[in-house]
Amino acid sequence: MRTYAALLRGINVGGSRKVPMAELRALMGGLGLGGVRTHLQSGQAVFTAGGGDEDSLAADLARAVEERFGFPVDVLVRDHAYLRAVMEDCPFPAAELEGRQLHVTYFSAPVDAARFAEIDADALLPEAFRLGDRVLYLYAPEGLGRSRLAEQLARPRLTRGLVATTRNWNTVAKLVEMTAPPAP
């Protein structure tokens, strides 16, 4: 059995696309996923599964959510080792920052710097971003809501063909903790 986190994009935001967490847990249990737990109301669930890969698990969950709630939801599934590597590979001094200042955008596939070449990063300093393994790290010292860089990174043409969903550093760390194997 492996432990995974499911990241559901754009649910329970602004009063629309409601997915109650208790119903999500029941739905996931009905798919045969074990140990289902949720974190916050914004679309994070942790579970165990004995088979399947990240993409098939995400597709199964996305299909089930749409059937149950009546609207499509993009889902990414990542295992503990990947989540831990994302945290460990952070190019910014995460321990020195507030959780609201650092964000990770998870992508469904690898991205390269050419996709973001139109952004004049120097003009947006001290905000900054760096790419990693299917992720983009964003340092926004005033938070995501005030970030001019985040606004530019969110342009649809920059993420065309990808599922992309962003989490603040507190959530990144919590998902690593929740997916960690039990201590011996």
Automatic annotation (TrEMBL):
Pfam assignment, any one: DUF1697
InterPro entries reported in the protein's UniProt record: DUF1697 (IPR012545)
Name the record gives this protein: DUF1697 domain-containing protein
